[in-house]
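Worked problem 6 (solution included).
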Amino acid sequence: MSNNELILSSGGHSEPLTEDDELLIQSKLWQLLARRTELYTMGDSSSVRIETAQELLQSINFCLEIYLKQSGKTKKLFVTADLEELFALGQKAIEKQIDLGKRLYNKACLTAPKIENISYMDTLRSIGGCFKRYDYRFFAHLIPCEIDYQLCHAVRESLQGIEYINQYLGRIIIENDFVRSFQKNRVESLLESYCSDYIGLLINIYEPIAANAVGLALLQEDVKELSITASDSERLTRFFEPLSATPAKIALNEAADRVCTELGISDPSSVRYLRKTTEELYPRIEAALGRGSLDGIFLGF
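Solution. The predicted structure is:
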């Protein structure tokens, strides 16, 4: 990827750029990189290792991209505007996102379910230290922490820096609130059935709970019970066998809505998150029906 492609491929709405536009933007970008390099070295040098220069350039791109997203402007603005001014505005937007991230982190810690899982606890701890290590002035695109805990729905890898961290924290809060709606002993029993070493292995806590809750909602049973008996599993098999994909997914979405109603979940993002989870159950259900049993999708304990 050429240097100005880092700018031209990110953020904003698409708008045609002429060859002259691209050359002008690249020239401005090099000038901005030179100034950022001098600041990074505190005036000692205008040159750094190639790897460091690439990281500084990535950070510049990230800040400009943040500005485009916040302002709704197009990349065409780079032709006439002072990139250093836009970069500074991007950094101010990042500062606000850092403040938001700290609030999200506090909420994630406060809502964390009392379920032991090493990767979950290590990840939260590492994110907490991230806010001290995050050098948004020069390396805003980096994520200076270890994130090992697997979300039910992973954050897009294309997101960087504080954007990735905030997206991750927002999703973990959704999962936390859902898991805390159930009795701890029932959650632990279900996880034991799902994975005997749920404490040590890289698993997601939310997904098996969501699957069982939706299964019970389909059967018009109490979703908080969590356990799916052998008889329940047979009933679910009979329920899904005559259904094609579309009516099956509709039924799963309706069951997800019922789960949210019973648990008192009204936040639209949380409802969408559970609906997405249930829709993604269908390919597994379809494959399992070919074997004549839904064991392994809906679990008993």
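Discussion: The two ends are 52 Å apart (CA to CA).
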